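Reopening this ticket.

The earlier resolution said the output was attached, but the attachment link was broken on my side. Pasting everything inline this time so it's all in one place.
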Amino acid sequence: MRIIILGPPGTGKGTQSRMLSEQFNIPHVSSGDILRENVAKKTDIGKKADVFMKTGQLVPDNIVVKMMTEILGKGKYKHFILDGFPRTINQAHELEHLTPIDLVINLISSEKMIMERLSGRRVCSSCKAVFHIKNMPPKKDGVCNNCNGKLIQRDDDKPETIKNRLRIYEILSDPLIFFYSQKGLLRDIDGDQPIPKIFGDVISVLKKEKLV
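Inline output:
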């Protein structure tokens, strides 16, 4: 199974990808997580990406493609769930040179739902566990359930940054969605539903396509 999860920021790509990874024991490859790891380690890629990520701008293709080529180009993964890559048509073309893709799942959500999800998200500064002040609150306000680390709001989850991220996604996503639709690989799923219902729909699609 080699699939891509598409959708605007906040549609739950990461959540669905992690659930699929656990269900089928397939690697979840998140470009966002990898970029943030590079930023934290202050690698060359991280330093370049940090400038864009702090303001909600899309990290340039050349940076992202270089990073993902190092990961996917080595043939390390025979199966994977791609989350956050590709985000542009140029990245999609580059991905074609790296590996074949079996299916693209496109999560569709309203702006209202996205704002609610992202602005309420909190991440542990130590173990990176994710919480939500409304949907999945920690037992103690501001403290991680797992390691007692401090919960923080990422810069790219602040309202003004979210709006900018959504504007950028809307501009860039149309050609990307058209690209995979023309290849017959795209399947739309309602991302405004509860998480378990979305996951059920994703599984149904995978079964219909005989990927599981």
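Reporter confirms the inline version is readable. Residues 177 and 186 are 7 Å apart (CA to CA). The chain has one domain: 2-109+160-208.
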